[in-house]
Design a protein that fits this description.
The protein is an all-alpha fold and 101 residues long. It contains 4 helices and no strands. The longest helix has 30 residues, at 12-41. The two termini are 29 Å apart. The mean pLDDT is 85.
Length: 101
């Protein structure tokens, strides 16, 4: 929903509110990931498993812009959108195929 409102951000204060909304959604990951990690992998090793997930998220935040910049340098923005959509679809499909804990 927030991405649909981005074109309507006409000044800096509206963009600041929009950015706070995005960061609020990102903060939800930090509250939900430990619970999901404990539910799927068990509570015995939740500390090390969550540490690995947190590290993987940090690596993706560093590599994502670099990779997308390389894709944009070689191809059109449409190709980048298709790639992101394909990975999102694969992630949703893998979640649907998983059995619930």
């Amino acid at each position: 929903f927030l991405f649909l409102t981005l074109p309507h951000c006409i000044d800096a204060s509206m963009y600041g509110v929009w950015l706070c909304g995005i960061m609020f959604c990102v903060g939800g990951n930090y509250s939900l990931f430990p619970l999901a990690c404990a539910s799927y992998f068990g509570e015995v090793n939740v500390g090390s498993n969550y540490g690995f997930l947190f590290f993987a998220q940090s690596v993706s935040m560093l590599l994502g812009p670099t990779i997308s910049g390389e894709v944009l340098a070689r191809y059109s923005p449409d190709i980048l959108c298709y790639i992101v959509c394909a990975f999102t679809f694969l992630a949703a499909l893998s979640v649907c195929l998983q059995s619930l804990p």
